[in-house]
Amino acid sequence: KGGLESERQQYIIHGGKTPNNELSDKMYVMSVVCKNNKKVTFRCTEKDLVGDVPEARYGHSIDVVYSRGKSMGVVFGGRSYIPSAQRTTEKWNTVADCLPHVFLVDFEFGCSTSYILPELQDGLSFHVSIARNDTIYILGGHSLANNIRPANLYRIRVDLPLGSPAVNCTVLPGGISVSSAILTQTNNDEFVIVGGYQLENQKRMVCNIISFEDNKIEIREMETPDWTPDIKHSKIWFGSNMGNGTVFLGIPG
């Protein structure tokens, strides 16, 4: 975080899959630099990491937590290619769930440390993650090994004292089964989950409100939107959060 107003907003970019089936393990920090009212420029710097560097992946989450005046990036989940020793000609582009490790990334010093938490047994991808202060909530996701979308709800808390960080995980009840959903924030203590899939070829048409009160999380269904016929009949949909409770949805033409 910079001292200037224009440098306070930063974006972390990590991983991803290209059309050529290449995976990236690079990590970038992008900041908005406003020169004047008419022109906005971006500054993008690659972060070289040392330690337990997360392998190249896609379908993962990366969030930032804040504790005791410090911040740390948290990488979890995703998919990657099977290890090179197991790759044959037939299996060259075969992907598998990444190990369910939690990575803490210090963006200031470029250090990365992985944590093995007993509550996280299975690799997950395309889950929903919500970061609030020193805590991240992991919802849903898809397990490639079992081909299921378990109704997960994990709470991962990160404490950043002067010494080594402490990371702990709690399994919470009341999770939902969904993958590839879009999360948008509607106010300080409320989020909405839109879209995604409940089965491989079945879109999830129900939306959920996630509300926080006194560090308690509640997930409930909300009134279903009046989906247009082309959205109802499409097999595939995708989109992103546009901020302030607005979601952009697309379907193949």
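Next protein, fold it too.
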Amino acid sequence: QVSELVQFLLVKDQKKIPVKKADMLKNIIREYRDAYWEILNKAGKTLQEVFGLQLVEIDTKRHICILINNLPRAEGQYLCREKEKEKMGLLLVILSFIFMKGNSVKDSALWEFLHLLRVYPGKQHSVFGDVRKLVTEEFVRQKYLETTPIPLTDPPEFKYQWGPRAEKETSKKDVLNFVAKIQGKDPTFWASQYSEAEATP
């Protein structure tokens, strides 16, 4: 059961899909549901020791888990599969933008910002494919980003914030250092972001 669960979690992690306890019980653990926590803990230990991945529960009510990298990170880089690197680069830029703008941005502001980077929603990008889909569906489904509708807007508008996976896989400090590096400034240049980054682990 343990090795089956490890494989199941790794397959889900390829697409960065959060895994529900219900799915683990139904697909893998089945009649061993009494030993659920024991199997999960052993699988978690294997993932950590063999793959450097940490099994983390991001929703304690509905018991939803994700795998995060806990190998030492290169500065401002995610440890990920080659072809994912570019996507993660774009994600890091988006997370930086959200953080620098006070942890929440309207979708229109985000698209304007991406426009400056020559990344256009609705246009096929040679590296990222359908950018609108990548940002609004994939990154949201993978829990890197969260969207909240803004009340009383017509047409409906949304705001973007960091999702729980982003909170676990990177830190505001990493992101601020990344921005500082790009801009060639010291992180202390942004006083309020700097103090917030220092205050959050």
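About the second fold: The chain has a mean pLDDT of 84.
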